[in-house]
Specification:
The structure is a single chain. The chain is α/β, with parallel strands linked by helices and 251 residues long. It has one domain: Rossmann fold. Helix content is 48%, strand content 15%. It contains 10 helices and 9 strands. The strands form 2 sheets. The protein has a 7-stranded parallel sheet with strand order 3-2-1-4-5-6-9, sandwiched between helices. Strands 7-8 form a two-stranded parallel sheet. Strand 4, helix 4 and strand 5 form a beta-alpha-beta unit. Bound molecules: NADP nicotinamide-adenine-dinucleotide phosphate.
């Protein structure tokens, strides 16, 4: 029988690339995103009869509760939905911060913890969490994003160890710059030109390398060779200064 995957944030970028990857492998899919127009367009692109398409705002607790209560138990969870929230210290409102925290950290935890008892009962399953390289490096003017991604990274690594003997693998993926609509949606379109070409990884590469790591039962993957090579230098002050100058707006 075909396996079932749940992907959050399927309508563009990494989530859409993941959906295409699993369509090619004939998975049954539960696909969730918020914006109805984007969802419809992506549904047409995927054109796949073994997928259920859902619209829900995953920054809200009730949306996650609804998924956990009403969806079939997945064999694979891809917790991917997210936004590139950014702003200098104190510039984001409480609502912006709380929603972003729930969307990319608290809600991911609720989703996973909602399904874990049933996955343990089945004795198998995989969980993939799309965090960010920002979880392990300083991100000036994106401190909230960085702290959210670090929180879910720490959670993912911990449950990965905890679930090892229960037949469930948990893999946290830490991508660097990925060519997706995320930056434009967040008003960061200047990054397209400012960040050097060699620093961009495709969504397809992220999916391919993350899936390979998940199937191998690895707890963590940094997709893209360039980020794997530079990882030891990411904590250096000079690297942080270079990153700041690359990402700064000109005006
Ligand atoms: N792009 C990068 O450089 C990069 C780097 C590191 C990590 N990441 C992470 O990768 C993940 C995917 O990002 P992406 O770059 O592929 O961005 P993207 O192309 O903008 O896709 C984000 C997906 O998340 C969904 N989403 C956003 N807010 C939502 C909400 N409140 N409720 C339900 N769905 C929501 C979007 O749906 P809608 O169509 O409804 O907006 C979309 O399907 C994120 O967690 C991001 O932090 C991205």
């Amino acid at each position: 029988m075909a396996k079932r995957a749940l992907i959050t944030g399927f309508s563009s970028g990494i989530g859409l690339a993941y959906s295409k990857y699993l369509v090619n492998e004939s998975w049954n899919l539960d696909l969730v995103s918020k914006n109805e127009d984007r969802s419809k367009k992506s549904e047409m692109i995927l054109n796949y009869k073994h997928a259920n398409f859902h619209n829900a705002d995953l920054s809200k607790k009730e949306s996650i509760a609804n998924i956990v209560t009403n969806f079939k138990t997945p064999d694979l969870i891809i917790a991917n939905a997210g936004i590139a929230i950014n702003g200098a210290i104190g510039k984001l409102s409480d609502i912006e911060k709380n929603e972003a925290y729930y969307l990319m950290c608290g809600g991911v935890i609720d989703l996973i913890e909602g399904f874990i008892p049933r996955m343990i009962e089945k004795g198998s399953g995989r969980i993939v969490i799309i965090s960010s390289i920002g979880a392990i490096t300083a991100m000036p003017k994106s401190s909230i994003y960085s702290s959210i991604k670090s929180g879910i990274y720490a959670y993912g690594k911990s449950i990965s160890a905890e679930l090892k003997n229960k037949g469930i693998s948990v893999t946290v993926s830490l991508p660097g710059y990925v060519r997706t609509p995320a930056h434009k949606k967040a008003g960061l379109d200047h990054l397209e030109n400012k960040v050097p070409k060699w620093m961009w990884v495709s969504a397809e590469t992220v999916v391919k390398e993350t899936e390979k790591a998940s199937r191998a039962g690895k707890a963590e993957i940094i997709p893209g060779i360039v980020y794997r090579i530079t990882k030891p230098f990411l904590k250096l002050q000079s690297a942080i200064r270079i990153w700041q100058s690359i990402t700064r707006r000109n005006q």
